[in-house]
């Protein structure tokens, strides 16, 4: 027995030394070796745990960090990386990580899919531990009960694929990007092509497994309704760590109808889009029509035009859709020839820009889905933008170097049935459109080149130009499209309200602060734009 204990102690000392040796050169903190020792000493299986912890000395450290950096503008030498990456396979290592990070003065960043728009799930300006949920991605679908338990590291694509293997008549109302991680997505609300019929993703969360700052694992009953309210749209990582979500699956027909068509200025795009603003939020909630707006050159000429792509999905057949559009929106010009009846899971492929014939297994292949390389801002409209305003926006787009995109989703329908305080996500009744404005850095080695900086400046000037046409008091923004341009101050309410009220509005933001102060009074779970404690 003594010999076994001695061997374990020697192994612990050796592993601790090997894992921490590089920290002396990469960090000035004297507690780095103690952090590794803490992580290992709390484990019942030191060898296994040592294979789940990575420091910069490990050859696999950089690839593990890079693989889920979904916005490649952060793949640059100046980006601050974790002091250590922990890739847990079970919950006890997460408890240990929280305990040791608190004890030795490290912050924690939580990465499920890596889609944070400002890279905040995998970078920081302070020494930090990154919890990477890549090994915790199980999905358990119960068709009879219309529910699914999904671990935080699973992606939306994996969830959709799993559901589709079980049934064609259930789905989950979330977004179309397959590599978005489930863990953080629900924490910001989450929306997709079913939002007009079923609301946000967070509206369809039934329960959660959640770890608080003391390492306690809670469910909805044990955490209480206030905390359960907060983590569904209020930024769950401000309060603790979501381990898994229990989701309500929603009914869909065996076949849905999709269509895509483009309109240019020469084809009346301005007038058609102007009417779209009135029709799309108020039409049958089985129909969702997303638009994408681009500026592009006309053929090989030097003249530019605006092209608007209308992408529709209808929870029904072509035979039912066409009469509806003929009555409500004949100007759009949808014909039977451009309609396609496909399974709901195939519609996710189509809205991600892939042919419907693409094997659905691609939804589970994280490396097959293209990454982003952009800077974005969001807005909501509560009245249609007049034609005069649309023309100003089009002119601004045509001044861009073809790096810009507007992606627009209509609201209304089920979204208007929820009060602004039902969950922290407040963008409900009265919202016409959600607008995502983005510029990419394609063709640039970084986001700091002169060309990239001009693109960012252009985006900010577009944001200013649109001020008269979007919501105000506050000017609403979507927290999952977080934007550090809005501010990061959190020393007091006045400072934090500059960005907090834009994401959540005043009543919700104040309630989130009260809940945060109760469940994490020392503000351990913090990052820029996290819920503050006053």
From TrEMBL:
Xref: InterPro entries: BBE, FAD-bd_PCMH, FAD-bd_PCMH-like_sf, FAD-bd_PCMH_sub1, FAD-bd_PCMH_sub2, Oxid_FAD_bind_N
Xref: Pfam families: BBE, FAD_binding_4
Keyword tRNA-binding: no
SUPFAM superfamilies per UniProt: FAD-binding/transporter-associated domain-like (SSF56176)
Keywords: FAD, Flavoprotein, Glycoprotein, Signal
Top-rank taxon, per record: Eukaryota
Requisite cofactors: FAD
Any one GO molecular function term: oxidoreductase activity
First and last residue of the signal peptide: 1-24
Residue span(s) of domain FAD-binding PCMH-type: 78-252
Keyword Flavoprotein: yes
Protein family per UniProt: Belongs to the oxygen-dependent FAD-linked oxidoreductase family.
Cited PANTHER family: OS08G0158400 PROTEIN
Protein name: FAD-binding PCMH-type domain-containing protein
Source organism (scientific name): Lactuca sativa (Garden lettuce)
Classification lineage: Eukaryota, Viridiplantae, Streptophyta, Embryophyta, Tracheophyta
